[in-house]
Amino acid sequence: MKLYDVTDLALHNLRESIFRNSLTTLGISVGVASLVAMLSLGIGLQQLASRRLERSGLFDTVVATSRRDLRNFRGPRDEGPPSAESPALDEPARQSISRLPGVVEAYPDIRFITELRFQDKAHLTMVAGIPFSAGNNNDAFEAMQGTFFSSQSAHEAILQKSFAEELQGMKRKTPGDAANGKNDDDTNIADLARPLLGQELILHYAERTPSAGATSAATSGYSVVSRRQSLKIVGVTDIDPDSMRGSARARVFLPLLLAQDLHIVSSDQRDISTTTPTYTSLSVRVANPNQVLAVEDAIKKMGFNAFSLVDANRSLRQFFAVLDGFLAIFGSLALAVASIGIVNTLVMAILERRREIGIMKALGASDADIRGLFFAEAGAMGLAGGAFGVMLGWVIGRLINFGTNIYLTRQHFPPAQVWSLPLWLVLSALAFSLVVSLLSGLYPASRAARLDPVQALRYE
Amino acid sequence: MNLRNHESTLTMTPAAVHTDNVHRHYPMGHTTVRAVDGVSIDVRAGEFLALLGPSGSGKSSLLNLVAGLDRPTSGSVIVHGNNLAALSREQLAKYRLRTVGMVFQSFNLITSMSLLENVELPLRFAEVARSERSVLARQVLERVGLSARLAHRPSELSGGEQQRASLARALINQPKLLLADEPTGNLDSRTGTEIMQLMQSFNQSLGMTIVMVTHEQALAEKYAGRMIHLADGRLDADVANNAATHTAVPHRAASGDAQ
Q1: Which residues of B touch A1 (CB under 8 A)?
Q2: Of A268, A279, A396, B185, which residue is most buried, by most CB within 10 angstroms?
Q3: What is the value of pTM for the model shown?
């Protein structure tokens, strides 16, 4: 029998027992919906976590440092020239690195401990320069209070929440506070930022200037001049954008170009014999986290040290792969129950249509025709159930997302997409539903095909 | 009909159906039912043969063997050169599709389908194109006088109309052999006569070989060219000799091959 005729007859038969077949199809739908909802939640959470981590700069960033500083700490696997011949990490090196394939930008890490005065009170903290691009690719600045820097070298500052608290005279959190149930979330970031935004912050720093008699950039030393720079507080961020720095994390952020223009003397100034600036380290942002390892290798070949946290990201993916696996198993349980429904429905159909099968055989239907007919019925129920199940799963996922966001909003968290239904999941769910249905139809179809036509024709 | 001419034609033509010492035994509990017990018959191409006998005589079992619905326990059934016992399940299905048309006492139309769909069904199995199917089904339904009932379901038709539809379905694949199992058993005598006349017309105009199971001696005598009597799964030799006097067609099997 042609495929069209098999399908046509199968649909005809399904319509004849529409109520029972609809219930069976609904069972499949619930199974598929459960699978889709579980997996879409797992995928959504994975994407949320990955997005947060990737946009935190932890997993798409390679940190490059000069080997000259670590000449006695070379690992046996390091590639490139010996430490003594390692190139300086200066502006030409930065430009070379930024031209490597897959690199979006390479910018110097400018950070220094200095004094900041707010309302005539001095505060000592770490200050760091942030590239202008961070406004678009770092979550810390997306959900913050206030605005990002207005220009690449604006005289503006963004404060980390803990520093904002310090400026307002709130006690700094200690590990003991957390143990006593006090945590950062007790303070509403909006309330914290309101009195600070637009206020002036005075940065005191030591500027490095060429010595008065220096004839060329490569000779002589430099002078240190005490300076002050007025900054306008434009933002307060809840999330720590500098978390990968550990104890060296900054709590005040300036536009990178402004930080560079200040020519601040840093404590680890490399070479006092030259005025050519060299960088302590470069942050190299990569377009795709998958390219991190390649970029890391390329930087090492250029003679620099490079490290990234890509391994941690891999572990995260591994964790989510396991989580997805468990969610899929729980989701599949409902589908397994539904598949028993298909077997039951089709076996019932065989009993009811025993005589009809006998007639078809007497008229010349082959075993393959009968088998194909029952397979097509199982497949049609599977496809319809799968399609409806995907829609149902979509609705359930949206509801979970909606409920989660209501909860997040009440807890003063920014809304998040905790659920995702990619096209591949839709297609996979449909295919899975079809395969499960066909497998469920295997026994009834072969039983129908094996029916003895004489016995079947005698059946009343 | 010129019986003498017909007789000579049949004598010359090869056997359309040949059974040789065919047995069909069923186990039932601790006993064995010998439904067909060594029957050897020949049916010539174009012949209209009636299988007669009381209930349980094995007529329908023999018909099922010839139809390829059942396999003999021993012996052979050869239809148009095909030894049915040697055919695979797939080949038997093809044989039923291409060579045989069947009509049943209870019509056996599929109740969920319209008449047109019922008649088209064998064409679906034969993989005939949809457009062609419809034309052929309409033609054959017109031939049995049901062109006004195409969209009706079997439950909306009388018994006679259902049996005519069943005949139309049996003819749709232009089989060489029409097998009818008590085709008038569920019909009143007037409708039964109509069906028999239709079958006779197919036999005469199309030259179709017909084997009909019936227990109505009068109908068989009137329409069949030859009668074979079965009793207890065997050819009934006594009745066969008498039957020979009622029919002008010689029948070697009926007279000589009974076990």
Answers
A1: 124-125, 127
A2: A279
A3: 0.66
